[in-house]
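thread: overnight batch results

M.L. [08:02]
morning all. the overnight job finished for the chain we discussed friday. pasting input first so we're all looking at the same thing
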Amino acid sequence: MLLTPCGRRLLPLVLLCYRQCQAPAPKVLFLLAHKWTLKQSVKRIKRSVPQETLYRSVPFDMEAVEMTSFKRPHSEDDVANVDEIKRQKISEESKTGSKSEQSIDIVTEQPGKPLLEDKKDDIILNEEGEEEDNELEESDEEGDPESFADMMKHGLIELDVGITKFVSSHKGFSGILKERYSDFVVHEIGKDGCISHLDDFSVPVDDEDPSEEIFTVLSNEDKQHLEELQLFKNKETSVAIEVIEDTKEKRTIIHHAVKSLFPGLETKTEDRDGKKYIVAYHAAGKKALANPRKHSWPKSRGSYCHFVLYKENKDTMDAINVLSKFLRVKPNIFSYMGTKDKRAITVQEIAVLRITAQRLAHLNKCLMNFKLGNFSYKNHPLKLGELQGNHFTVVLRNITGTDDQVQQAMHSLREIGFINYYGMQRFGTTAVPTYQVGRAILQNNWNEVMDLILKPRPGAEKGYLVKCREEWAKTKDPAAALKKLPVKRCVEGQLLRGLSKYGLKNIVSAFGIIPRNNRLMYIHSYQSYIWNNMVSKRIEEYGLKAVSGDLVLKGGTAVHIEEADVDDYTIHDIVMPLPGFDVIYPKHKIGDAYKEMLAADNLDISNMRHKIRDYSLSGAYRKIIIRPQNVRWEVVAYDDPRIPLFNTDLDKLEGKPPPILATEGKFKALKMEFSLPPSTYATMAIREVLKMDTSIKKQTQLNTIWLR
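M.L. [08:03]
and the structure it wrote out:
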């Protein structure tokens, strides 16, 4: 059995069992481990290295361990729980025999089942419309295993990006965020101010909707042939489907099924050798796939079907890609108001062009970790940034703070708020921060831009990226380096492709191949770096009060506070500029500090226009203190770290009773709720409560047991 793919996943656990039982493992197991590229596991076992290294010896995605754990575990229960998680994952894979993309120490949750750990922790929490590179595909190729703490010793900490101050005076305490991804639930707040909830699976009644039979009338083989025809994957110009029970009603259902399930295809009935066939063919070439047929959509119905998407452990773009794949349409017919976190349960509104609610509802039967509901037809799509914010329900498990500490922390969050820093995820996770690339772009130093993106770096990286960077450093040959990448859609692959096309003397054009949002991410990161540092300096210099020379917004326009008007404003009114050509700066020491910091980077604060229009920074204003709305909290006790501590929308729809909590449990958890405006980081609110560094580097150092 160990020769099978499933056995490959089981092998490290088998070796671990021998280790725990203090029994010698058969030599054949070590030979198999060597065969399956687990040399590091064998070496560490032979050296009798402590058991935690066995878990780290299994190949894993370095992004998998971007923990948001804010506690140093101090009991063996934590280790036992991780062991149980791994056993459950391996048990599931051995039953299904599926080729999971996740390594054995990473587990996903099924609705209604205990929630376990997932593969990646993206903690962009409330940053709607922000640029993210979600296009990097997974690869089976991994780098040599290494201690994650060692890998992250080159990473950033909060001090590196200007995050240094707190506004509250309470004593901090520790807790674990996202021990389960159901501990972090995000509900979108629409432009009407209403919080989105999934509470209705019913489909709007429409006489023009086809019958449910369209989903079952076609065989799997028919569907495969039709999909290949639709996507131009074969040389055939048509697909013929024999009508077994030849009646007009049956033929009508098949016509409807093909047209509804495979946009871009038309059908006709033909007689062949005395038998009836439904022949499917392309209506209008390749454009028909991207543009759903207008003539098949009732004029009385809104062109867009709006629905609420409930998803677990998927970011918004991944979810839309999955939906488009199952619906056999292009992803660009979907629209939304903001992107949501992956490692969470999120609820948001989505709109899709000319796809019926009936078809969407059918996906509930075949998709896991997704639910669609609250359907309605409207005449408009959704636009990025239209939302008013997000409402968060967060559980911090195993907290160490006293009841008095918790009350002080939460009262401060509600009454004062938190510093509106840009969170750590804004600046990347590798040894080369994104703001450094942004600074080089603004300096027009394109050789530096190329070098920063492609050069080798210490720390957490996928194996194929390491090989790509080494090849680049050795040869400076973009084509040779590109061959080391199994996937080409990461930023490095796109830049190398551009360099292959335009040459090393035209880096600007080569860099332009990278999608615009990803390019702008770098300079926005630099703006955020400046803003964080200036806000820390402002609070250190003047405290939490308005002073003469500060900036406030009046009707969308920034104005300086005059000495006579200082008493009319509080710290919650003050804004600070992100540097650009269309902003003004404070008229006190901080205004000079902006100039000095930019001058140190060889940038002129009075000339933020770039030779390339895309990289000209107009600037913006951002409040320095955010006071969350609708703040509620409670401390709950529990014994089992795997049980949920509150019900989700899906739990309520399925009629599940609320979780039964212990009155005197082994552990304490802080359940908190709050609402935040767009482009605000929930991690910074939680940082203010716990008073802990939220960087991966610090959290890895604090949580060595977590990796065991």
